[in-house]
Specification:
By secondary structure, the chain is an alpha+beta fold. It folds into 2 domains: 4-175 and 291-370, Aminopeptidase (3-Layer(aba) Sandwich), CATH 3.40.630; 177-288, Alpha-Beta Plaits (2-Layer Sandwich), CATH 3.30.70. Helices cover 28% and strands 26% of the residues. The chain is built from 8 helices and 18 strands. The strands form 4 sheets. Strands 1, 2, 3, 6, 7, 8, 15, 16 and 17 form a 9-stranded mixed sheet that branches. It has a 4-stranded antiparallel sheet with strand order 11-13-9-14. Helix 1 packs across helix 3 (103-122).
Length: 373
Amino acid sequence: MVNQSRIVALTRKLIRTNSENPGSTEKAVAEIVKKELLDCGFEVKTYEFAKDRTNVVGILRGKSSKKSLLLTPHLDTVPAGTGWKHNPFAAEIADGKIYGRGAADCKCNIAVCLEVARLLKENNIKLGYDLIIAATADEEMGSKLGLISLLEKGILRPTNTLVMDVEGFKIAIMQKGVLQMKAIVYGKKAHGAYPWKGENAVEAAAKAIVELKNYKFDVKPHPLVHPPTINIGIIKGGDAVNIVPDECEFTMDSRYLPGMDADALILEIRKTIERATKNYKLETLNVQLPYEMDRRSPLITTLESAMKNNGIEPRIEGSEGATVMTFFQNYKIPAISFGVGPDMAHQTDEYVEVYALEKGVDVLLDFLKEFQG
């Protein structure tokens, strides 16, 4: 049975240990996780891909090491920012809620994983597979210093993965892909009093942006997420108010569905921009593939069963935004996401309910015991 006072104390300790990204490092909070895992009988190693950007990987050997399950929350948080009623690093408790930066995203999930590890030891439960807990750095800024490098270097090679980083006891089984691009539109400089002597790059870029916002995706709707999107994030151009600008740059962020092809989408974006101007350059900044798990996967069905056993109706959902789930598909590792925090990520007065921590431990422990690897 979950020890309420213990998991509350651990959650508060994690919140009070600053790991803002950017602004701090994960080293101090990683040391807490490392000590907890060692106390629970895990074999523990730490890895850094930049100074003090610490990742913690612990392995609890099971009856067989032919199969393994990875639980992976992240150690970093977004910056606290201002406007808080509750001190973001005091971990204050009020009305059954623990407040602080990272309470929901995702130090609550770290605490749940560690309390489950403690219960496995206390109850002498030996799983049929190796259990890996990897608390990673740099998730909030892309995971290059964390999960991506752990996978690239072969440090992590589980046979199954449960990403501990989604809100509200959801089971996320798919996510949209990400395509981020920069367009530079060119024109010709002239005096602002004689605009007909130049070619206004800002006006051409504005027309291209309107074309992109009016673009209609010809795709079948997905039942778990909204249709594909294009967002214009940054626009800048021009040197002075009295000069016809000869260059304007804008960035776009497209979220696209499983089954869509990134190269085909880039071609469509080119065609759309060219309805406004032919004088431009397009650069791809980032591509992250969409991801979707087979609904019949034992990862999903076993987690659903564990939730029902604890009085929670499973909610199968997709993610509109990027998650680390997608990184596992490059290595043919099945992965889904789960988490216990409320929908408070990146918000002021972020919190997690004590009840959710306890229920999360019950669900995760049942899942681990039932899962066959």
